[in-house]
Amino acid sequence: MSKPVPSVAALHDIYTTQALADQQVRWNGLLEKFQAIYRSPAQFVSRSPGRVNIIGEHIDYSLYSCLPMAITPDVIIAVSTDVAPSVDGTYKIKIANVDEQRFAAREFDIPYSEVEIDATKHEWTNYFKSGLRGALGLLRKKYGADFKPKSMQVLMDGTVPAGGGLSSSAALVSASALAVMIANGETNVDKKDLTEVAIVSERAVGVNSGGMDQSASVFSERGSALLVSFSPALSARPVFFPKTNPELCFMIVQSFVTSNKQVTGPIHYNLRVVECSMAAAYLNAKLCPPGTELPKDAGPLGVSIRGFHDNYFKGSQKPMTEQLEELIKLTKRTLTQEQGYTVEEVASSIGISVGDLKARFMSSFPVRGEYFKLRQRALHVFTEALRVLRFLSLLEDPAQAPSSDHTVEYNQRLGNLMNETQDSCRDAYECSCPEIDQICQIAREAGSYGSRLTGAGWGGCSVHLVPADKVDQIRAALLEKYYAGRQISEKDMEGAIVVSRPMNGSAVFQLNGGKI
């Protein structure tokens, strides 16, 4: 058992002082609208935040650790069980959204037997239904297959930009599953249980998540990032930022460049997964003893660069940083072709036929490429995994802690690692784009310590480590030098630049007479 999701009695238990005034208005508006729609007060609110990945980009599917954090934008769901089903053998779900123009209200009479979800339809209520289905699975495991859920009236509000790489779907599914469990009498919802339910639940709407997003949304603690590890199994622990002067915060900036994974996957995201998996097999064949099999693991294609790493250093007592430093040198000596490798060259090096290579690495999803850049992709993975450890060491090693009241040099050391990540994503992994590069340059020139893309890349979001006293200066520079020349709607601009410190994860707010 991990810790239970906290039950809070005041907004300052969730948000920072800087965010309180706006959140007070927002929550009051949510509860007043709930009363107006349903003619009765809400009983509680469930809340789960979005997340941003601070460092550790494109290495989770190679099974190396990453460092996300929860952010201020979140999903809040007001709930009441003061409603009766209208059809025998069913329970009723009334669901509405504060943004009723974009998300129409719905009403469902759901059979006790099964929660049906049509994943082929892009319907916003599917995310609530997926959380409902996952939570009911957990409740029935606990109370028996005959458990009958309560009817619910629901009103939700979300400030996590949809499709912006900040895990709005994970926040919505996590908050929904939590709402269902609390509505059905659970008073202590285990964080690990909620996370696992949310991971499985999100797959019902076609999102095959590895768990980082949900872990960050549920487990995070204010003032801390979250070290999410994937080997030997999914785990998470808080990593706290020391007190600095100037104070640090994170600015999340939207590029409004979209990259449809389904359309561009064969030359972008999917291709990187294949290249990393091929690099693992190539390095394993060249550097491990003859006959050493690459172990099956949780990588998308059943193998990973981490699997080769563990093979090569089996039984070694070397610190992980030294292992990675050695692997970087070995990769440069072993994978020498800057232009990449053909399938024939990879197959020959691994010792299998071209047909077997394609069946093993290129049959799960479509990819297109004449040359596969194994050297660059492996070097990004190893150097990025090393940057995560160095970032972690700066935060946790007493010998590297800031020693004075003025910590600009320490802040910049953290920022430099993020800048190196951006360089690697741009040059070695080739997952940036000119717009993200431009945003990072503008932010750095205006005072950001570190700026880089976050999320899948080829557009989407960037994250910036900035001194709190320069937020307005950096925002103004971005508005003038990036956004001013683009046609972006007023609605989209509301979420274009988000400022956040590491925030708390999921929580439940019990209401008194429908008020906070």
Characterization of this structure:
- Helices cover 41% and strands 17% of the residues.
- It is α+β, with helices and mostly antiparallel strands.
- Helix 3 crosses helix 4 (191-202), helix 7 packs across helix 12 and helix 10 (343-350) packs across helix 11.
- The two termini are 30 Å apart.
Structure keywords:
alpha+beta, seven-stranded mixed β-sheet, four-stranded antiparallel β-sheet, 16 helices, 17% strand
Mean pLDDT: 92
Content-based structural category: alpha+beta
Strand order of the largest sheet: 1-13-2-3-6-4-5
What proportion strand? 15-25%
β-strand number: 13
Straight-line N-to-C gap: 30 Å
Poorly predicted runs of 5 or more residues: none
Tally of DSSP helical segments:
16
Cα-atom radius of gyration: 24 Å
Order of helix and strand elements from N to C terminus: EHEEEEHEHHHEEEHHHHHHHHHEEHHEE
Largest sheet: 7 strands, mixed
Portion in helices: 40-55%
- Write down the overall geometry: globular
Short summary:
Helix content is 41%, strand content 17%. With 516 residues, the protein is an alpha+beta fold. The model has no long low-confidence stretch (mean pLDDT 92).
Produce the secondary structure layout.
Blueprint: E1 7-8, H1 17-38, E2 44-55, E3 67-80, E4 90-97, E5 106-111, H2 125-143, E6 152-158, H3 168-183, H4 191-202, H5 212-219, E7 224-229, E8 235-240, E9 248-254, H6 261-264, H7 269-287, H8 305-312, H9 320-334, H10 343-350, H11 354-361, H12 374-396, H13 408-427, H14 434-446, E10 450-454, E11 461-467, H15 471-481, H16 490-494, E12 497-500, E13 507-510
Parallel strand pairs: 1-13, 4-6
Antiparallel strand pairs: 2-3, 2-13, 3-6, 4-5, 7-8, 9-11, 9-12, 10-11
Helix pairs in contact: 2-3, 2-4, 3-4, 4-5, 7-8, 7-12, 9-12, 10-11, 12-13, 14-15
